Amino acid sequence: MAAGGADKFSVLLPTYNERENLPLVVWLLARTFRESGNNFEIIIIDDGSPDGTQEIAEQLEKIYGSDKIVMREIISVLFSSGTAYIHGMKHATGNFIVIMDADLSHHVSLYFRKQKEGNFDIVSGTRYKGNGGVYGWDLKRKLISRGANFITQVLLRPGASDLTGSFRLYRKEVLQKLMEKCVSKGYVFQMEMIVRARQLGYTIGEVPISFVDRVYGESKLGGNEIVSFLKGLLTLFATT
Amino acid sequence: MTKLGQWLCGLALLGSAWAALALAPPGLRPPAPYRQALLPLPVYLLVAFGCYSLATVGYRLATFNDCEEAAAELQEHISAARADLRQRGLRF
Q1: What is the distance in angstroms between the Cα of A162 and the nearest Cα belonging to chain B?
Q2: A23/B64 Cβ within 8 A
Q3: Under an 8 A CB cutoff, do A59 and B89 touch?
Q4: Confidence tier at A96 by pLDDT (50, 70, 90)
Q5: Looking at CA atoms only, how far is residue B9 from chain A in angstroms?
Q6: Does pLDDT of A3 surpass 50?
Q7: Residue among A2, A22, A44 at smallest CA distance from A214
Q8: What is the structure's pLDDT at A2?
Q9: Contact residues, chain B to chain A, C-beta under 8 Å
Q10: Which of A179, A166, A187 shows the shortest CA–CA distance to A236?
Q11: Cross-chain residue pair A143–B61, CB shorter than 8 Å
Q12: Average per-residue pLDDT in chain A?
């Protein structure tokens, strides 16, 4: 438990060139936390963005208070989500850690409710169950997504319906333990976390999420992404 | 054991059972009708799995939700956020 006995949520936001999205994400998070009455902090881990992301983060810090917004800069050539989280966790004072991309936001409050319901170690967002879904995806992209997920389910039997989730809530100790064990990079790292969590016996709850495409700009899904996904998947298949 | 390990074990087990029965020398073979069904069994199973995969992915594709309201709501939030933050002194 965090100091005072109440739950505190630390949101880790790794950013690279998110000057446009960052204020919106922070505003949405702050509003959700305020409405649900939860104690929170947002830790922005920026990888030396050239577009002024840090300057915007500093402004937000002034507006919301430096106990709520924490800016940490790391400049690393090999910036992968893994390094950002390790770095961010060092400064996190909450007993729950929320990991999300800075380019979209969800109904954060649903996650807390779910966690409380089942006292889960991890709560993960899924696009594939309940009223979860996507917006603005053409048939090809949906097919690739479902196909890739099917192969993942057959090969890894992970116990979660959506592995490449961009929004997760972890107990702090659970995340620390998983970070020690996981070795992949990028989004394969996210997949590995869930697979290892399952192996270690942690409980995973799922919440349907609506994945609305990047607020500004489009996500790419080309041949390269597919190949690297398959490589990552096969690596996990052979090593976990 | 890794997932790959599990698969290899499983395949080795089933494969050797199949080979033992299907490729047995004349003295130890199961009766002819059973053999006829047994020999092409691996291919049958592969094809069955292929059909199951196609059906499953097809079904999931068809029932993939489109979140119109979430997108609209997000746009509203964005406008509200920009207005509020501008009022609080954020210079975009």
Answers
A1: 13
A2: no
A3: yes
A4: very high
A5: 13
A6: no
A7: A22
A8: 44
A9: 2-4, 53, 56-57, 60-61, 64-68, 70-71, 74, 77-78, 81-82, 84-85, 88-92
A10: A187
A11: yes
A12: 83
Dihedral of alpha carbons B32, B33, B35, B40, sign? positive
Q: Which of A135, A151, A222, A233 has the alpha carbon at shortest distance from A190? A: A233
Amino acid at B79: S
Residues in chain A with CB shorter than 8 Å from the CB of B91 are 59
Interface check for A150 against chain B (CB to CB < 8 A): the answer is yes
Rg (CA), chain B: 29
Q: Give me the count of residues in chain A.
A: 240
Contacting residues of B for A210, CB less than 8 Å apart = 65, 67, 70-71
Res B75: pLDDT:
84
Q: What is the pLDDT of residues B29-46, one digit of tens each?
A: 777 777 888 889 999 999
CA distance A10 to A39: 9
Q: What is the Cα–Cα distance from B54 to B7, expressed in whole angstroms?
A: 21
pLDDT tens profile A116-174? 778 899 999 888 988 888 888 889 989 999 999 999 999 999 989 999 877 889 999 99
Q: pLDDT value at position A234?
A: 94
Phi, psi of A171, deg, nearest 5 = -70, 145
Read off the tokens for A240.
């976990």
* Nearest chain B residue to A59, by CA: B90
- Across the interface, whether the CB atoms of B77 and A28 are under 8 A apart is answered yes
